């Protein structure tokens, strides 16, 4: 059977065998509802509690700070909408390069008396220092800045940003979905700096889809966005997805154990990739900023990104033209637009995101196929002109 080379790990990751093994009993005979009082229910509750401990430990948090959700989008919505519901309407600030599941709920708050301001970034995708200082002078009530960007891989110094926001009294949230497993993520240190909440997700760290968490400072009050039986400290009602939560716990534990190995191995693979990209004329976005060790976002002149992704797919390489969660949007990447990239260039953007299963041979074969594909497309463009 044909097996394409998978180079889209920022979209989702393959399930780790150890995670699958841990989940299997809960997909078979262990069927209890974690809220039930009998033996099946008690065993399910114990499994959820153990997974919560593992996720908390991987993040330097306390288990009572971990609120399980169905995904990163739900966790981000829970914080933004849940916080807005208990605060007096004011100013909410989100970086201009946030994932749509942060940007869109923030915009929805405008109908509830809130004003929204996007925080500008520089040409490399980093928060603009002057723009941020100006924002803080306006005393925002809520701020959300992602730790690592899902498209460019650019890393923000959220500890410094949160510390600067202390004087404004803002509640500070960070989407860390792309950072977990690729960077050391310590909620206790971030919380001490002024970060009140952090979002993480299982399927980005070789865990299952359907499990994520909002790690929340217990001093912060939120209004539940899913009402019902009062699960998850009353913040997220609904029967727990025990198999996925169990898998999340194991995946988080493994990700924390492997982050040092990841940071030792991945830079060499990305350097090999980007040397090849540069040699065939690619423009790489985010150069000059600190980026994730596995992420390269690039474009070629006069080549459409969706077209290139489709051609590479037929050559046996799975890559992306942007964020998987917003792939239905034909508009150029809002992240690149915020970085000042011209729309005609942004439409050509393609992302390669490496994972644990990739090796040098994958990259060498990819660069060879990319060079040939780009050459053919540029030839067609020249003929058309």
Q: Can you characterise this structure?
A:
This protein has helices at residues 17-23, 39-59, 72-86, 100-108, 129-137, 158-165, 187-193, 242-279, 305-315, 334-338, 343-346, 360-384, and strands at residues 5-6, 66-69, 91-95, 115-119, 142-144, 171-175, 197-201, 212-216, 283-284, 295-299, 317-318, 350-353. It is of the alpha/beta class. It folds into two domains: 5-13 and 260-384, Aspartate Aminotransferase, domain 1, CATH 3.90.1150.10; 17-254, Aspartate Aminotransferase, domain 2, CATH 3.40.640. It has a seven-stranded mixed beta sheet, sandwiched between helices. It has a three-stranded antiparallel beta sheet with strand order 9-10-12. β5, α6 and β6 (171-175) form a beta-alpha-beta unit. The longest helix is centred in the C-terminal third of the chain and has 38 residues, at 242-279. The chain starts with a strand and ends with a helix.
Q: In order across it, which strands form the biggest sheet?
A: 2-8-7-6-5-3-4
> Whole-number radius of gyration?
21 Å
Percent of residues in helices comes to: 40-55%
The CATH architecture of the largest domain is 3-Layer(aba) Sandwich
Secondary structure layout plus pairing:
Blueprint: E1 5-6, H1 17-23, H2 39-59, E2 66-69, H3 72-86, E3 91-95, H4 100-108, E4 115-119, H5 129-137, E5 142-144, H6 158-165, E6 171-175, H7 187-193, E7 197-201, E8 212-216, H8 242-279, E9 283-284, E10 295-299, H9 305-315, E11 317-318, H10 334-338, H11 343-346, E12 350-353, H12 360-384
Parallel strand pairs: 1-11, 3-4, 3-5, 5-6, 6-7
Antiparallel strand pairs: 2-8, 7-8, 9-10, 10-12
């Amino acid at each position: 059977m044909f097996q394409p080379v998978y180079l889209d790990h920022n979209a989702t990751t393959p399930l780790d065998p150890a995670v699958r093994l841990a989940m299997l009993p809960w997909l078979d005979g262990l069927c209890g509802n974690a809220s039930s009082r009998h033996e099946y229910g008690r065993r399910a509750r114990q499994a959820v509690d153990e997974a919560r401990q593992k996720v908390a430990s991987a993040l330097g948090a306390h288990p009572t700070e971990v609120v399980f959700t169905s995904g990163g989008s739900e966790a981000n919505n829970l914080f933004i909408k849940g916080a807005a519901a208990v605060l007096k309407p004011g100013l909410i600030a989100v970086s201009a390069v946030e994932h749509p599941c942060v940007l869109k709920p923030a915009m929805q708050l405008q109908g509830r008396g809130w004003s929204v301001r996007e925080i500008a970034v520089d040409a490399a995708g980093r928060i603009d220092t002057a723009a941020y200082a100006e924002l803080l002078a306006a005393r925002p009530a809520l701020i959300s800045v992602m730790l690592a960007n899902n498209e460019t891989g650019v890393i923000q110094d959220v500890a410094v940003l949160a510390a600067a926001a202390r004087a404004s009294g803002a509640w500070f949230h960070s989407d860390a979905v792309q950072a977990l497993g690729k960077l050391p993520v310590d909620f206790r240190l971030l919380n001490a700096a002024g970060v009140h909440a952090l979002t993480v997700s299982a399927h980005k760290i070789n865990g299952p889809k359907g499990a994520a968490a909002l790690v929340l400072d217990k001093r912060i009050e939120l209004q539940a966005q899913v009402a019902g039986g009062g699960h998850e400290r009353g913040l997220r009602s609904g029967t727990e997805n025990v198999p996925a939560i169990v898998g999340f716990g194991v995946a988080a534990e493994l990700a924390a154990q492997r982050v040092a190995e990841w940071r030792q191995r991945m830079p060499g693979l990305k350097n090999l990739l980007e040397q090849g990209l540069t040699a065939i004329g690619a423009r790489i976005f985010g150069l000059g900023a600190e980026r994730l060790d596995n992420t390269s976002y690039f474009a070629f002149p006069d080549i459409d990104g969706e077209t290139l992704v489709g051609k590479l797919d037929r050559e046996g390489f799975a890559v992306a033209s942007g964020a998987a969660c917003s792939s239905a949007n034909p508009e150029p990447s809002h992240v690149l637009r915020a970085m000042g990239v011209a729309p005609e260039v942004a439409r050509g953007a393609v992302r390669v995101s490496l994972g644990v299963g990739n090796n040098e041979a994958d990259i060498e074969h990819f660069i060879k196929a990319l060079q040939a594909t780009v050459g053919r497309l540029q030839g067609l463009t020249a003929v058309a002109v």
